[in-house]
Design a protein that fits this description.
188 residues; alpha+beta; 2 domains; four-stranded antiparallel beta sheet
Amino acid sequence: MTSTEGTTTSPQIEQWAAALARGEKVTFHRSRAKNLLLAVLMLPLALIPAAVALATTFPEAIISWLITLLLLGCAVVFGRRAMSRTPLAVVTEEGITSAKNTAAGPVPWGQITRVTTLASGASTFVAICITAQEKERRAEEAGPLDYEMEVGEPGQEEPAISLPHGLKADEDELVAWIERERLSRGAA
C-alpha cells in the first residue's frame, strides 16, 4: 500500500467548505451513473451464458444457468446501489460519519490525527487516522470495527478507519478538504 496526502484546493473543495461553514452537512454518495451503467451492462452479459445453457446438455447447462443467475444478481445489486440515496459518508461540524459504522457516531475533528489516501491494487480509498482514545471509544460503543486498520510505516502505525470505497468524489480532493478542515478545527 502506498500513501499520498493532498494539499491542493479546487472549486469542489471550496464548495464543500462553504456548505460546512453555513452549518450544512456535506454528504457523499455512490456514483449513480456508474452503478446504473454496470447494472445495464450485466443484463446483456447474462444472455450469453443463458444462450450457452440452452444449447448444451444437462451438466454444462447447470454451470451456465448459475453464471446467468450470478450476473442477474449483480445487475440487481448495482441497480439498488444506483437508486439508493443513503450517504456513504457525512461530514458535519462535529466530525465525520462513515456508513460503515454509524453506531459510534461521528469521529470528532479533535480525534483525527491525519487523513490520507491509500492505494491497494486498483482501488484507492480514504483513511482517517484516529487517536488511540477514539479507537477505544468506538470499540466500546460499537463493538470491534471490521474496517479498522493500521496506517503508516512499520513500527509507527496509527489506528485508522476507512471511508467506503466508491464515493462520488475525487479522493485526493476529499483528503485535502478534510485535512484542511481538521487543521482549522483543532487537530489532534
